[in-house]
C-alpha cells in the first residue's frame, strides 16, 4: 500500500551510491519532477538503470544527472542520444553496462518476478556473448543474463489512487516493469484520484508494487513541456 | 536515379496485413510509399502497434511517442503496451518484417550496424532483438560508403549486430536476396549495370547474370 | 491480422495428435463454445496444455475432452479438480507433465516470447527438482525448465475487433499469455465490435498475436451458464 | 474450544495494509475475522487483488472468480491482471503473507501438502510458488491427523511442497514460531497444557516452558 509524499520527501530515499531505476523511454513518459529533484539534491555516485539515455541531444531525462556528474555507472541498452554521457563513458567517469534492449527488459522483469536468470538467443554470434554466460538448452546455444534490481525505482504513470494503483496512458514502456524490481518504488503521476475511480481493468500497476506516490506536473503542464521540446527539435 | 529511390523500393516489399518494424531514417521514410489498399501495421519497440503520422501542434500526447521519443499518433485499432510485451512480440517471431540500415552486410547474412570500435559508441538498443526475432530482415543502405568502398562484404569487419539473419539487401544501385549459400543479385537500379555492381560489391555474387531492372515510380 | 470464422471452421485447425493450449483458469474465462466443438469433432490423441483441469467435479472445460477420451498427454500444474482425469492418469491412459503453476506460466510465456528457458527457484528441495535441469547462477541453485508452445491455442476474451485486437474483462488469467505461444491462435469472444471501439489502452492482446476470431456465447448467455454452474455447486 | 478457533487465531496475524494470499478452507475462512479497521488486501493467483465476498445471484460476473473458479466480487481499488503478473507478484516477494493448510510440517520449516504417493494426486498448483515467494508463511492445520498422529514432524515423511519456508504454525491446540534452529511454542489454546503439546508433537520443542495462553474471541 502506497503513501503519498512530496517530491522533496521522496528524493531523500535516494542517497549517494544508491542504485536508481528510472522509468520511461528516451525521454518519453519519464518522471520529470523527480529527476529534477534528484538533480537538485546533488546525490553522487549513482548507479542509474534506464532503457536508454534521454532525448536526442542530451540534458533531458537521465541527461540531467549526466550534466551534473551524478552517475558512476549506467546500466542500459542505448546511450547514442546523449553526447555528454558518451563523453563521460569514453573518459571512464561512468562505467557502462550494456545489454540488448529486450534482454535489458527481461533482466529487470526477472529482478521483479523472482526469476533467477534470463535465457535468450539474442546476441549469439556477436560481442554480446562476452557479456553473458553461454548455455545450451535442447542442443541450442543461448546467453544467460542475471536479473537487475535497484534500491529505488522512480517511475511515471498517468494517474494514481491513494492505494498506489497506477493507470497508464499511451505507451507505458518500462514503467510497469520497473515498478516491480526495486526495494523502494516511487511513482510520479499527473493526478491522484479517489479509490475506485480507476476501474480494476484500467490498473496497469497494482498498489502492491508501489511504496510512494508523488504528484508530478499536471497532464496539461506536461503536454506543454513536451510540445516545446518537440517544436524546438523540429519534430512537431 | 529517382528521388527517395531506396525508400520507394522498400515499399514494394510491403504486403497487405503485414506487421512491420522500421528502423530510423530511410526505412521509416518508406512508410510514405505504402501502396494504396495495402494495410501495413507499424510496430514501435517502446510499445505501440499501428501508429500513424505525427500529430498537429496542440494535439500531441506526451505519452504517445515513437522509439525516438518523437510524437506520433495512434490509428483506430492501434494498441499500446509495455516493453516486456513489445520485445516478447519482437523476439518471439511475431513481427513479419523489419527494415534497418547498416554499416556493413556480408554474404553470410551477417550485419554490422551498432559499433565502430574507438569511434561510434551508441549501444545496440533494440536492433539485436529485431534482427534476431523478425521473420524477415531487409537491410536498406547506400551501396558504398562515402569513400566509395563496398558496404556489402565477404565478411563484415565491424562488430556484428546479428549473425546470419539478413534476407534481402536494398541499396541505391541493386537488390540482393541473401540465401543460405550467399548473395543473389535480383534487380538493378535504373542505369546501373551488373558489371558495376560486381565491382562495387565485395561479397561474391552467385548469379551475376540473372538480374532484372524493375520500375520504381 | 485476424480473420473471423465460425467455430465449425476453427475446430478444423485441430487434428488428431495436435497440441492444443486452452486458456482460462479451472473453468473460468475458458472458450466454452470451442471446447464443445473440439469435443463434438472427436479429434483424438491431443496433447492438451492448460493451467489446471476444469471446474471441481470434472466434465467442464478440459473435463469435456477427458470424458471423451481425447487427451493423450496433459501439460499443467493442477489436476485435483477432475476425478475423471486423475483416473485416466493413474490408468496410464493420459501422460501427465506437471510444473508449479508460476513455472508453467513462465514456460508458456517463454514459448511465446522467444526465450530459451525459465530459471526459477521454485521447487528447489522438492520432487520438482527431478522435472528440470539444475543450474547455478551467482552461487545460488535454480531449476531450468524448457519453454512450452502448442500447434493451436484456443483462448477466451471479452471483445474483439476485426483486426483481432482483444479486450479482456475481469481476470484475463492465462489467455493473454497463451495468445503468444502457438502457431495458430483462435480467440473466442462474447462480441465483435468496430475497429477503434476498443481504445488502444484497453487492448489486452494486440491483433498481431491472433489468427482467427470466433463468436462465442454472448456475455448474457455466458453469465447464465456460469450462474447455473455456481448455483448447482452451492457457490452462489 | 471456541468455534472456528484456528480461523480466528489466524486473523490475529493480519496487520493493516497487508497483502495476503489465503489457501482454501480454514485460511480463507479467516478473512471473516479480519479486525475492524484493519485493511487486508487479498490476492488470488488467477489474477486479482482486493477481492471481496461472493456476489448475489444475478450479480455475478463470469470473469470475476477466485482461484477455484468460484464467483467473487472486486472491491473499489481492486485490480485484475494476467497470471504472468500474478506469479511475478507471488514469486517476486511482493506478497506479505500466505496462510495455507498442510499434511505435515517439520521442525526445519519444511511443508508437505500436495501429494500422498499412491493416494493423492492433484498437482502442486500455485502452492510451491506461494510458499517460496511470500514474505511470511503461516501453516494452519489440526494438530494431529484423524488417527491422532502428530502432523508436526521431526522430518516430513511425505513429498515436500517447499523446503525451509514455514514461519509459523497455527493449530487447534497451539501456535509455534518456526525459527532457523527449530520450533518455539508460543501459545496454547484454551484448556491445552504444554505437556499435552509435547506429547502430540513429534518435532523437538526448543522452549517448552515459555508459552502463554492468548485470548481468542
UniProtKB/TrEMBL annotation, chains A, C:
<dbReference type="InterPro" id="IPR004165">
    <property type="entry name" value="CoA_trans_fam_I"/>
</dbReference>
<dbReference type="GO" id="GO:0008775">
    <property type="term" value="F:acetate CoA-transferase activity"/>
</dbReference>
<dbReference type="InterPro" id="IPR037171">
    <property type="entry name" value="NagB/RpiA_transferase-like"/>
</dbReference>
<keyword id="KW-0808">Transferase</keyword>
<protein>
    <submittedName>
        <fullName>Acetate CoA-transferase subunit alpha</fullName>
        <ecNumber>2.8.3.8</ecNumber>
    </submittedName>
</protein>
<dbReference type="InterPro" id="IPR012792">
    <property type="entry name" value="3-oxoacid_CoA-transf_A"/>
</dbReference>
<dbReference type="Pfam" id="PF01144">
    <property type="entry name" value="CoA_trans"/>
</dbReference>
UniProtKB/TrEMBL annotation, chains B, D:
<comment type="similarity">
    <text>Belongs to the 3-oxoacid CoA-transferase subunit B family.</text>
</comment>
<dbReference type="GO" id="GO:0047371">
    <property type="term" value="F:butyrate-acetoacetate CoA-transferase activity"/>
</dbReference>
<dbReference type="InterPro" id="IPR004165">
    <property type="entry name" value="CoA_trans_fam_I"/>
</dbReference>
<keyword id="KW-0808">Transferase</keyword>
<protein>
    <submittedName>
        <fullName>Butyrate--acetoacetate CoA-transferase subunit B</fullName>
        <ecNumber>2.8.3.9</ecNumber>
    </submittedName>
</protein>
<dbReference type="Pfam" id="PF01144">
    <property type="entry name" value="CoA_trans"/>
</dbReference>
<dbReference type="InterPro" id="IPR012791">
    <property type="entry name" value="3-oxoacid_CoA-transf_B"/>
</dbReference>
<dbReference type="InterPro" id="IPR037171">
    <property type="entry name" value="NagB/RpiA_transferase-like"/>
</dbReference>
